[in-house]
Each structure stands twice: as C-alpha cells, then as structure tokens.
Design a protein that fits this description.
Blueprint: H1 2-44, E1 53-54, H2 60-89, H3 95-101, H4 104-137, E2 144-145, H5 146-163, H6 166-175, H7 181-186, H8 188-201, H9 207-237
Parallel strand pairs: 1-2
Length: 242
C-alpha cells in the first residue's frame, strides 16, 4: 500500500509538472512573438528622456530578445505553478483550509504585478535620473549598452516586486501559527529599520527618492500587520479553536 501511495504521488507530481511545462512552452511562444513589440514600446516611451540603446556585441540584441520572452513566459507561468502546487496538496486539506488558501494565488500574483509596475514607473526613473546627473557631474560621455540597461532594470524592478509579496508572506506565516499580531507589533521598530535599509539600497541616495521607496514598504508592512490581525482573530473565533 505504501508503494502504491508513492507511485500515485509521483504520477500526480509528473502530471502537474507536465501541465506547468506545457503552459510555459505556450507562453514562451507568445513571449517570442510579442517581445519585439514590448521592446519597441519601451524604446518609444522613454521614462527619462531619450536614451539610445547601443549594442557592443553581435549577441546583445538576441539575448535581450530571449530574456524578454523568457520573462513574459515566467510571469504568466507563476500563477499556474502556484495553482498546481495548491491542487497537489488539496486532498490533504480540509474544505476550510482549501477555501482559505486558494485566494493566496491571485493575491500574490496581483501584488507582484503592482510591485513591478511601481518599481518600473516610479523607482527605476528616479535611479536613472540620479545616475545621469552623476555622469554629467563627472563630465562623462553617456553611451548606454542595451545589455547593461536591462540588467540594471531587472536589478531594480524585481527586488521591489518581491518586497511587495510581504503581506502574503506575513498572512501565510500567521495562518500556520509562526507569527502573531503581538509578535509583529513587538518587532515593528526593527522592521522599520530593516525596511529603511532595504529602501536605501534600492533607491538613489537622496531624501525624496529614499522616502518614495521606504514609505511604500512601511505601508506594506502596516497592511501586513492589519491583515494578520484580522486573520488571527478569525482563526481564534473559528469552531476548531473554541
């Protein structure tokens, strides 16, 4: 019976992985088709004035094209992956647990998209403006390579997007009992210091830019505390805890 259970679980995992891989291949094909349009749109809608994208090797354009297609596929595969993970563990959950954990998938995806949008439209332009000012200060001639431009873009956008997952992470840790509202309130001042350090690392070293990044992070933490408090009260009032 034990061996049959292992075979059943491995078969289920294989099925779920095949679904994810198939979806990734489909979205990668879509990404390969739309990537030139995405890149041309980004070029035609400069965030901070006109910046020429130069290539310094024959493969620069191809690599950016493939990275863009891969990121499109990854972005739209993550929700499917999360759902397949949830569907795999669903038989081991109660109806109440399944109902309460399913919303994590669209919420986490929505927060990631919000984080990408905020960092691309707000944080990244501030970083570019600061770097351009610094280059002018030292009298440098600006020639930007497309590879370094997008590498810098990813280094700014994705850490911020991941930081926007904070409410979901806190809510999940509260759900499994590792965090309580009391613990969150006790660690608030340390969290503020940590978020301020993170904000200073991913923002230009001027006060306005620093506040523009740190304040949203602190607001996310406070939203996390509020949602965790609501989740904790709901858990305490549930029949299982009465």
């Amino acid at each position: 019976m034990e061996q049959e259970d292992w075979i059943f679980h491995l078969t289920e995992v294989r099925k779920r992985l095949l679904i994810v891989v198939a979806w990734f291949v489909v979205t990668l094909s879509v990404g390969l088709y739309v990537s030139p349009r995405i890149l041309r749109y980004m070029k035609s809608q400069p965030l901070v004035g006109e910046i020429n994208w130069n290539v310094f090797s024959f493969t620069d354009g191809l690599m950016i094209y493939m990275k863009c297609a891969f990121l499109v596929a990854l972005l739209f595969t993550v929700p499917v992956l999360l759902y397949q993970v949830w569907a795999f563990v669903r038989p081991g959950l109660t109806d109440a647990e399944a109902k309460s954990t399913l919303p994590y998938i669209p919420v986490s995806f929505a927060l990631f998209i919000i984080g990408v949008s905020f960092s691309y439209w707000v944080v990244f332009p501030m970083m570019i403006r600061f770097m351009i000012r610094m280059n002018h200060t030292v009298g440098a001639v600006e020639t930007y390579g497309i590879d370094r431009y997008f590498s810098f873009l990813f280094e700014v956008v994705f850490p911020m997007a991941i930081a926007f997952e904070l409410p979901v992470v806190v809510l999940f840790l509260t759900r499994i009992g590792l965090l309580t509202p009391q613990r969150l309130k006790m660690t608030r001042k340390y969290a503020y210091v940590g978020l301020a350090i993170i904000g200073s690392c991913i923002s230009p070293p001027d006060m306005i830019s620093h506040l523009s990044v740190t304040v949203p992070l602190i607001l996310l933490f406070e939203i996390s505390v509020m949602v965790a408090g609501w989740q904790w009260r709901t858990m305490q009032e549930s029949p299982a805890n009465s």
